[in-house]
């Protein structure tokens, strides 16, 4: 069974779950998960976790993401993108400098109301299921943050922009909100996710490319080992006589590891004496031990 992360280029028309299903077929293994839903109309970077790396799914879902989006001004739809039914159309009178000013005004934290066509649940039912039944429910605004936003090109009524944002941000809704601010409405015309944490668009592989590499026997070279995700953390290696502690996922004393220049604070990568990656540990100062934060050894 393969363990690690593969940077998949999700193509238009596929759901994120479709990608996982196809990856299970390609690799002939069940333990596969994705790291954050991309709408079927969107494309781009979708890190897919294999085997033990599925424990990373939540962690990578929480990472910041970067998108290239095309916003279409003058139209509002029920899905907030061009796959939906047009609800209203307005003339676009805004000038380019007004558009830029409106776009850049969203830099920083803001409260965003999730769209009805989303997988969020209310009373156990997904919003998009309610929307398909013609039911609209009140949604609470949620805090999100636009970390960077840049206008790349304006050819009204279309505006191309690059957005780096926190988890939980809907770019469709951002386009809608910008359109509302300009008084002409707006929706998302296209979306490409260009980066998730350290995973870049230029390194991503389509499903057909993954199949080709599998057939060539070289796919393993494109699977990122689990510990590489934590490269920013200092590493420590256990003394052989204490390997059993970490093999069982137990805490340990710092002097049960080999000599290390690792700092006293912050998370650490822990390896056994054979340099097998165990997981991420963090210091518990009160008990003067290192305790497991996320363990990747074993099949669970």
TrEMBL record:
InterPro entries registered for this protein in UniProt: PsdUridine_synth_cat_dom_sf, PsdUridine_synth_N, tRNA_psdUridine_synth_TruB, tRNA_sdUridine_synth_fam1_C, TruB_C
Keyword match tRNA processing: yes
EC number: 5.4.99.25
Residue ranges of every copy of the tRNA pseudouridine synthase II TruB subfamily 1 C-terminal domain listed in the record: 246-294
Broad enzyme group: isomerase
Active site per the UniProt annotation: 39
Domain Pseudouridine synthase II N-terminal span(s) in chain numbering: 24-171
Function: Responsible for synthesis of pseudouridine from uracil-55 in the psi GC loop of transfer RNAs.
NCBIfam families linked: TruB (TIGR00431)
Protein name from the UniProt record: tRNA pseudouridine synthase B
Organism phylogeny: Bacteria, Bacillati, Bacillota, Clostridia, Lachnospirales
Gene name for this UniProt entry: truB
């Amino acid at each position: 069974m393969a363990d690690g992360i593969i940077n998949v280029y999700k193509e238009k028309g596929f759901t994120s779950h479709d990608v996982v299903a196809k990856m299970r077929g390609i690799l002939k293994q069940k333990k596969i998960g994705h790291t954050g839903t991309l709408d079927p109309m969107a494309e781009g970077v979708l890190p897919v976790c294999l085997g033990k790396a599925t424990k990373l799914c939540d962690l990578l879902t929480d990472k910041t993401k970067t998108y290239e989006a095309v916003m279409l001004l003058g139209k509002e739809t029920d899905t907030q993108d061009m796959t939906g039914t047009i609800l209203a159309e307005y003339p676009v009178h805004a000038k380019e400098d007004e558009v830029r000013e409106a776009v850049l005004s969203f830099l920083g934290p803001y409260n965003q109301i999730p769209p009805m066509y989303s997988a969020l649940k209310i009373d156990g039912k997904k919003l998009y299921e309610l929307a398909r039944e013609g039911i609209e429910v009140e949604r609470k605004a949620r805090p999100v943050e636009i970390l960077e936003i840049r206008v790349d090109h304006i050819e009204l009524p279309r505006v191309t922009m690059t957005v780096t944002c926190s988890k939980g941000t809907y770019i469709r809704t951002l386009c809608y909100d910008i359109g509302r601010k300009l008084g002409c409405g707006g929706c998302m015309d296209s979306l490409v996710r260009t980066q998730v944490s350290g995973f870049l668009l230029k390194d991503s592989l389509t499903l057909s490319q993954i199949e080709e590499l599998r057939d060539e026997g070289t796919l393993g070279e494109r699977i990122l080992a689990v510990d590489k995700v934590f490269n920013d953390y200092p590493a420590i290696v256990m003394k052989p006589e204490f390997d059993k502690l970490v093999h069982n996922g137990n805490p340990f004393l710092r002097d049960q590891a080999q000599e290390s220049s690792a700092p006293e604070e912050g998370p650490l990568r822990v390896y056994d004496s054979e340099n097998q990656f165990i997981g991420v540990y963090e210091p518990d100062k009160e008990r003067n031990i290192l305790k497991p934060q996320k363990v990747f050894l074993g099949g669970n």
